[in-house]
Fold each of these.
Amino acid sequence: MFDPEGPRLRELVVQALSSVERGYDLLAPKFDHTPFRTPDSVLEATASALRRAGPFGTGLDLCCGTGAGVDVLRQVCEAGVTGVDFSAGMLEVARERTGPTGVSASSGPPVGWVRADARALPFGPAFDLVVSFGAFGHFLPRELPGLFAQVHSVLRPGGRFVFPVVAPPRPGSLMYGMLLGFDTVMRLRNVVWRPPFVMYYRSLRFGEMRRELTGVGFRVGFWPLPEFGRRADGSPEVRLVVATV
Ligand SMILES: C[S@@+](CC[C@H](N)C(=O)[O-])C[C@H]1O[C@@H](n2cnc3c(N)ncnc32)[C@H](O)[C@@H]1O
């Protein structure tokens, strides 16, 4: 699961006993060698779908980590790209990847990094496109309306909030059992240990997400990502949720 440059089990345990912010600070130097970074296949398929809908002006990667989504935005945004995350450690690694001036060595729009909590974004309506990868498990269901309202508030009229969602594993499958086991361990950990580390894989359902997005004023649609195929019932394995202001 982890490559040799990734964290050791002991490091992961220490990180999981910290807060989310501190845990990512500790994990940051090795994060790109873990399966927690969004896989390139998902990033490339998302970039390809956005290229067909773009180009866009300014882009924001919400909970950017080491910048996986920023790399996607740089391919489809012409006027500038910002990554926002509350972990200083993750942002430091992200900055190292793009160079000290904030402008990547290769061609593309200027890139900036902002340390902030996604639940209190320090921006006005300055973006045409917001993306987010692999971060919603860090928010409790009751936090979603506030989080989505924040995203809505930083988008210009007609702006889009786009993120991939993987179809939930079938009950009884190995993956279902693994995610259920992970969530159960995290819930027990959060009962007996402070500070909490919120990371639940099974907390977010597509229907609920759609309802919450609509509730804060988005028009919600989705684009299947054909690269990942379809299930026996015809539904896409992976889709992009596309919420428009
Ligand atoms: C699993 S990592 C994903 C990073 C990156 N988007 C990717 O796909 O590789 C989750 C990221 O969300 C950030 N995060 C979690 N809760 C946050 C919050 N409330 N505000 C800002 N960032 C947050 C963490 O610091 C971490 O960098």
Amino acid sequence: MTADLFASDEMSLSEQILPDVFFLKEFALGHTEQLLTAISCIEAQSAFRKMQTPGGFYMSAAITNCGEVGWHSDGHGYRYSQVDPLTQQKWPPMPACFLQLAQSAAQRAGFEHFHPDVCLINRYEVGAKMGLHQDKDEKDFSQPIVSVSLGLPIIFQFGGPKRNDPKQRIQLEHGDVIVWGGSARRFYHGVLTLKPGQHDMTGPYRYNLTFRRAG
Ligand SMILES: O=C(O)CCC(=O)C(=O)O
């Protein structure tokens, strides 16, 4: 597979939902089987786990990572680390199909030369959600974020630089991709609670791949 394969997918529709924020409907649809197989390999090395927040709560989404670094959270704060704290080994490498998808989606949205060094993988079960937050633990904000949805649908919220700014709500479905960067790179976003359902490829789950350049 090459980045061109993604870039030439005429089936996908893209929409700019805010300045520097792009919704690429079904952009990853032709590649979901390969992406899900890669997730299975990653979780066999670095299992999904529910991370503790600095406030002492547990996040409802289960998380793992691949790439040169991985994001994690515990009682001491949010940060990137070179090793998985569960295994004390390096995080699994980023599969080529992940990198190609992330780069071609970024390019489609007008962000050339995206070089993600981490893919955070969220797994949502019924009742899981991700509250409004900014992605701000990275050193490099010049590069965009590419976010890929697999499995059950969920409502994504995208706001502004302040938590209480007005929000757009978008239903994200299997194969949809959102890309944001530039002036929107640190805008608040999150997802509402996952509703019960059964997806042909992911069963009762939704997966999200979030590609970033941590720096
Ligand atoms: O699951 C999603 O679509 C959003 C994930 C997210 O916001 C994050 O990992 O920072």
